[in-house]
Amino acid sequence: NGHCDEPGDFLVVIDDTNASGVDFSGVQGMAFDTNGRLYMVDGTDMIAYAEDLTADGDFQDAGEIVVIYDPNDPNIPFPLGALLGLALGADGYLYVSGVNWNGTDVIWRIRDFNSDDDIYDTGELEIYYQDTDPISGLPIADIDLSSCFGLAFDHDGYLIMGDLLSSNGIGMCFDYNMDNDVNDPGETWWYRDGSAIEKHWTNSVAVS
Hints:
Layout: E1 27-32, E2 38-42, E3 47-50, E4 65-69, E5 82-88, E6 94-99, E7 105-110, E8 125-130, E9 148-153, E10 159-163, E11 170-173, E12 188-192
Antiparallel strand pairs: 1-2, 2-3, 3-4, 5-6, 6-7, 7-8, 9-10, 10-11, 11-12
C-alpha cells in the first residue's frame, strides 16, 4: 500500500541483545558492501560490520557482528577521535568522517588488507581529507568542514559531504591526481554553501 505501517513491515535486525555481545550506542552511519556486509559507525566511536551468517534475516546470532575498530582497544595504533559518518567507495575502501583527536576535521580512508578483522595494521588507515594543519592551524583542503555526519558517493565517484556546524552546507570532493587524498587545490568545493543562505542542519546525504 506504499506505507510501512502494517504488522511485519519492520524487522529488528540488530539490538543490544545480540549474541555477539556488541553494545551499540547510537549508530550514526551505515553502508552495505557488495557482499552483503553492513558497515556501521557507532556513537561510541566504534566501527563494526554485521553479516547474516545464518541467513535468518538478522544479525543477532553469535559471530555476526565484528568490531574492526574499538577506541578502547590497547592495540590501536592511534585514536581516530569522534567518528561521525561512513560511506563505502567503489574502490573497496571505507570512508569515515570525524573530528580527529587533535581537533581537526578529517575523513579517514580505511581497508582491512590482511582480512584479520581489524584496521590496526600498517597502511590500513590513511587521511583522505583534513581541514587544517593541527600544528600551524593553516588550511589544508579548500573547504573547512565542521562535524561532517553525512557521506555518500555518487555514480561518478564524487564523495558528497553533509556539513553540520560551520556552514550547514553540502561539500563535494574528488581525487583528481589519484594520490589517495583530496587535500590538493581544486579537489574539494561547496555544492551548497550554507553560510550564504538560511542555515539548516545538514547531517545526512543520499544519492538516488
